[in-house]
Amino acid sequence: MQVVRASPTREQNQGDNEMAGYFTEENSIEAVNGRMGKDINPRLAEVMACLIKHLHAFAQDIQLTQDEWNYGIEFLTRTGQMCSSERQEFILLSDALGFSMLVDAINNRRPARATENTVFGPFHVKGAPVRQMGDSINLDGKGESCLYEGRVIDLDGKPIEGARIDVWSDSAEGFYDVQQPGVQPRWNNRGIFVTRSDGAYRFAGIKPVSYPIPDDGPVGQMLGHLGRHPYRPAHMHYLVTAEGYQKLVTHIFVAGDAYLESDAVFGVKSSLIGVFERVVNGATLWRSPFDFVLARTAR
Ligand code: BEZ
Ligand code: FE
Fold this sequence. Notes:
26% helix; 5-stranded mixed sheet; 7 helices; elongated
């Protein structure tokens, strides 16, 4: 006699799969994290388990459709394909999602008096020329000349000797030299200055202008779909390092810039909005004073 088995219910299937240790919608996080080996790097295990937990919860929360995930994969593929030695679209994605600023904030909690960090960005170039104090970094002669000056000091206001101040800004047209090889001179609007015993620095540059982050790729398209513009408020970049002190990666923003409240990469902090005052001193039209306050590294 033939035994006719009633069709199992969804719950029975689920129960069977769970009993057998197979993947189900309900146990998805445990199913994936449970596969990790015992002798793996403990931090890797911790990071991946947390990532899987939040990634699966995201798909559940939003009830992600297959078409949406296919689009996501295609977007990530295009992001990767846009990357080259000159272009890092994944960093740009992290920046535009505010993720770079979040990771930066987590890793740079400082005493209130110390200068705040902000996003590094993709346009720093290692090995810029070390210039004499007072020199100009502006090699193409374009733009409005600005004198940058101040001191590098510690939390007690004492000058820091031997601090390296690596600076870079865009050109008068809103492009970094590396975006326009053959158009701008190499190292245009870049240089390194080393403080002496008074901690003072001084250099001439231009008053920077606001510019769009590279928006001809998937990240630019994403911003467009989200009704966001790609602009950054005008800023001068600084990487300040000194023996025994925490590395400072920051910008000084031009007060009054139209994009301060809507920076495409969320880099603005109140304390980093600098003074740009009008001066009349030969060809110099502006002066931007700012003291950098470094916190000591933990001993
Ligand atoms: C920059 O300020 O140079 C920058 C930062 C993040 C993304 C693109 C550019
Ligand atoms: Fe920049």
